Amino acid sequence: MTAKNLQDRTTLTNGVQMPWFGLGVFKVEEGPELIQAVKTAIKHGYRSIDTAAIYENEEGVGQAIREAMKETGISRDELFVTSKVWNADLGYDSTLLAYEKSLEKLGLEYLDLYLIHWPVEGKFKESWKALETLYKQGRVRAIGVSNFHIHHLKDLMEEAEIKPMVNQVEYHPRLTQKELKAFCQEHGIQMEAWSPLMQGQILDNPILKEIAEKYQKSVAQVILRWDLQNGVITIPKSTKEHRIIENANVFDFELSKEDMERIDGLNENHRVGPDPDNFDF
């Protein structure tokens, strides 16, 4: 089912509902710009905010959430907040500690989703046990992973009691990850896109420009719509109000099957981020 509006949610395997669309804050530094961006997004209907320990902006995100709730009257349970455990904190005890630190910085009592940020060999299984503990204790509503290839997922699921509910990966028209997407679907793992706009590197693509003109939309809107129609959650990053509004204005049109296939055809297995198999941790 394709999302019908900005508040629409998909149901994860454990029944928790996660918004199809959210705001990412990768590389947005602590400070007024960050706080304003998160507040702006919430004010304009966003309900999902994605951060991580390594972004070093959890405190600002937490402050913005508190201010936005006060100003808009939105309650905490209407929001969906995600953070991630960084590589240096992988391991059972250190992951539990990292979770507490993230909660403390965010000023929240729980997270809606907690992810293992990268699949560091020999370490991610112990961290997953910690996430399972947090989940069983009711400290986090859903748990998942980020940047996991199929072989990482298989390796994890051999011993896991609970399957990951989400896999957040680099995903855009130059990196469509079809095999991974099919594997996630088969195992009830919701795929989520980071860097959906390829950090701006794909916005001048002539095919995407042509499709955008046809629908009277921006290239960014076409790509984000493509994500949603592919059943992939998307969290574009922006700090500019007009862009935050524009990015989310993707619920009043639908890409044809032919145009979806043309966008699929742009795949080159090209990454703007590191390959999880060759990441210098």
UniProtKB/TrEMBL annotation:
Catalytic residues as annotated in Swiss-Prot or TrEMBL: Y55
Family: Belongs to the aldo/keto reductase family.
Swiss-Prot/TrEMBL site (Lowers pKa of active site Tyr) positions: K84
Residues covered by the NADP-dependent oxidoreductase domain: 32-268
Sequence positions that bind substrate: H117
This protein's record includes keyword Oxidoreductase: yes
Example of a GO MF term: oxidoreductase activity
Gene3D superfamilies referenced in this protein's UniProt entry, alphabetically: NADP-dependent oxidoreductase domain
Classification via PROSITE patterns: ALDOKETO_REDUCTASE_1, ALDOKETO_REDUCTASE_2, ALDOKETO_REDUCTASE_3
Keyword Mitochondrion tagged: no
Keywords, sorted A to Z: Oxidoreductase
Full protein name: Aldo/keto reductase
